[in-house]
Amino acid sequence: MGLERPITIGRIDYANVWPIYNYLNEVLAEMDAPPFTFMQAVPSALNEALGEGRIDAAAVSSFAYARHSSDLLLLPGLSVSADGPVGSILLFYKEPFDRMLSGRIALTTTSATSINLLKVILELRYEGKPEYLSMEPDLEAMMNAADAALLIGDHAIRASWQKHGYRVLDVGEMWKQWTGYSMTYAVVAVRRSVAEAYPKEVALLHRALLESKRRGIRYAGELARKAAAEIGGDLTYWNQYFHGLRHDFGTAEQTGLMHYFGFAKQLGLLSQDVGIRYWSESVAQVNE
Questions:
Q1: pLDDT digits (tens, 9 = 90+) for 159-176
Q2: Tell me, what DSSP letter sits at residue 16?
Q3: Residue 137 — left, alpha, or beta (φ > 0 → left; ψ -120 to 50 → alpha)?
Q4: Tell me, what's the pLDDT at 282?
Q5: Which of 71, 237, 238, 252 is 20 to 30 A (C-alpha) from 127?
Q6: Prediction pTM value
Q7: Are strands 167-170 and 278-280 parallel, antiparallel or unpaired?
Q8: How far apart are CA 119 and CA 269, in angstroms?
Q9: Where are the domains of the chain?
């Protein structure tokens, strides 16, 4: 490929991206693609790796894209979104609800988008002023230290099955009820320098991801069976979970995400306005 190493692709270590990634290796093999390497990790690790140039393309937190948008381009048609409940971004809290608005909230260390989405909702909608703690994703440890805990991904799903006695709110549903918009939690981005230097390889990767996503949506039942076997739970739960996710990145997803970026800037979480900049296969140029 003309690099000192193959192009490296990051993969979020959560079930919510399986509809995009599950068939990727199969598709790349069918395309007789040049070698790619993969790094699988939680969102926060991939965010850091992409920002530092240790990987070249990845599904990353939408907030991480916003922070590094001058160096990144989005691959069109790919995201992890939901128009309402998302099922895997959950706020566990001790009653009453108002207690945590001026209390302590333990935040998972594994994501940026979800943490800042919760801050936006609690501080702008409810005028809350809680103290935030960063902790590893362990529900009991978090709740021993705080009045509420935010978990995401498979950690949130497993915790939702426990008989813990806490109240639970779906943060995606909270966002939808407040704003009326969908929410995009992750986007698929490529480093601008790599996209400009290796347009053919990036074009191939983009086509492979879109085909993998097509198969993931078509064979959602397979993913549900895989999730039940590897993570737990039953087929009914997983079929509902995958049905509630969206992996396109159309007008509704873009509109909701831009509102999120606007609120994040209002709250001081972002220092600049953020535009959505795409990589384009035709002549490998940026479309805004």
A1: 999 999 999 999 999 999
A2: G
A3: beta
A4: 61
A5: 252
A6: 0.92
A7: unpaired
A8: 9
A9: 8-81+183-287, 89-179
- For residue 148 the two structure tokens come to 């509420």
Q: Which of 189, 238, 188, 177 is closest to 213 using CA atoms?
A: 188
| Amino acid in position 196 | E
Q: What is the C-alpha to C-alpha distance for residues 246 and 248, in angstroms, rounded to an integer? A: 6
pLDDT of residue 3: 54
What is 41-87 written as a DSSP string?
E-HHHHHHHHHHTSSSEEEEEHHHHHHTGGGEEEEEEEEEEESS--S
Asked if the domains 8-81+183-287 and 89-179 are classified in one and the same CATH topology, the answer is yes
**Interval 42-54: pLDDT, tens:** 888 898 999 899 9
User: Rounded distance, CA 288 to CA 277, Å?
Assistant: 5
Average pLDDT, the chain: 93
Residue with tokens 């093999």: 29
If pLDDT is split at 50, 70 and 90, which confidence band does 281 have?
confident
- Distance, first Cα to last Cα, the chain: 28
DSSP per-residue string spanning 80-106: EEESS--SSEEEEEPSSHHHHHTSEEE
Report the distance separating Cα 241 and Cα 225, nearest Å. 12
CATH architecture of 89-179: 3-Layer(aba) Sandwich (3.40)
pLDDT of 99-148, one tens digit each? 999 999 999 988 789 999 999 999 999 999 999 999 999 999 999 999 99
Determine whether 152 is exposed, middle or buried from the number of CB atoms within 10 Å of its CB (0-12, 13-18, 19+). buried
CATH topology of domain 8-81+183-287: D-Maltodextrin-Binding Protein; domain 2 (3.40.190)
Contact 38, 7 (CB under 8 A): no
Distance of CA 156 to the CA centre of its chain: 14
- Residue recorded with tokens 């703690």: 133
